[in-house]
What does this fold into?
Amino acid sequence: MKHKITLVVLFIGLISYSQQIITDRPDQTESSSTIPKGSLQIEMGFVASSYENINGFVGPSTLLRVGLLKGLELRIFNQYESYKLDFEFFNEAYSGISDLEAGFKVQLLKKEDVNTEIAFLSHIIIPTANDELSNDEVGIINKLSISHNISNKVSIGYNIGYDYKEQIHSFTYSAALAFSLGKQLGSYIEAYGTYAEQGFYKSFLNVGFTSLISDNFQLDAAYGLGLNNDLQFFSAGFSWNIPRMFSSK
It folds into this structure.
């Protein structure tokens, strides 16, 4: 049944695509573009997930992106999380606001005559959450983001990263293939994973679609599952770019 659901969502996703507003959701692959100077971009969503004996709901998750300079943006991320643990001899539920993340993204390469873009992203994780949800110490997320336009309808983006969270060092990767079939609809298929200390490895598959309501407002939805684990999740949300929110002088 799980694989049938995956095929249905994949089919729905691959018949649509949009790209006017450049976003960092709903896929795991961060875009290789920064938002325009002087603008504010709000990216918000909800995620329902299940993993072994844990059911979770996250939302709203909110990423604020501020275009400080051309090729440089400030980023602030936070979300509300709720989890239920249902084991044979143990049950527990907890919820609250996650640790605060703050950071930046900087454009390293973007030229009109080159079909490759490169950006670097870094977040600091500040332990502001309650004990059940917090890393309990400062952490860090780093990603190098690269993308290529294969044609005017197909592009590929991928990330290579290093994280330090919950006292664990890990390397991350993701690769998303996007298809453009029009001006208002879009989709992607994505593989991503984490390789942590002591050989701990998890891999996932994610498919989704986007719907462009206007040039600066986009809806999205995605479905993902674990390839070597029991994770399943569904997410939905929106992205909204507010141009000339700040002085561009």
User: Anything to note?
Assistant: The two ends are 56 Å apart (CA to CA). The first strand starts at residue 40 and ends at 51.
